[in-house]
Fold this protein.
Amino acid sequence: MKSIRHLLACFAIAGSFVFAAAPATAQKTDSTPPPFRRFPTVPPFELMGLDNHKINRESLAKRNGTLIIFFSPDCHHCQQQMDWLKEKLSSFDRYNLVLATYQPIEELKAFYDKYKMSSWKNLYIGRDEKFFLPPYYKIANLPFLALYDKNGNLLTSFEGTTEVAKVLAAFKK
C-alpha cells in the first residue's frame, strides 16, 4: 500500500512539472517569418472593387512601384495616413496605390467619398473579402504599408502611421 501511495505521489509531482512547464512552452513566439518575407514579391491578392470588379496584382499598371496599404476606414491612424498621403498625392503619381480593407463595402465607399478618391488616377481600392492580406503580412497595427519596386520586389514595410517623407524615401533606395 505504501509503494502505491509513493508511486501516485511521484506521478502527481511529475504531472505538476509538466503542467507548470506548459505555459512556458505555450508562450514561445513563432519564429517563422511572415509569408511576405519568405515570398518578397507583390502578393497574389484579390480585392472586390467598389464597382464589383476584381482587383489583383495582374490588374496593376506598370509603374515605378506599388504601395499596398491595409487599413480600416474608421481607424484614426488610418485616416491620418490618408490625410498625409492626400497632401502629397502628386509625389505618388509614379506608383500604384492599392488600398485594401476587410470592413464592409459601405464603409469603404464612404471613405472613398470622404477623401475624394475618384480623382486618384493610380488608385486600386477594394475589400479583401477572403481576409488574405492580414495573415500574409502578419499585421498587428494599422495602417500597414508594404512597398514594392517596379519589378514587384519588396522594398520594405511599415506598421502604424508613417510619415509620407519616409515612405517616399523608401521608394528611392
In short: Residues 6-25 have pLDDT under 50 and may be disordered. The chain has one domain: 32-172. Helices lie at 2-26, 35-38, 76-87, 105-114, 133-137, 164-172.
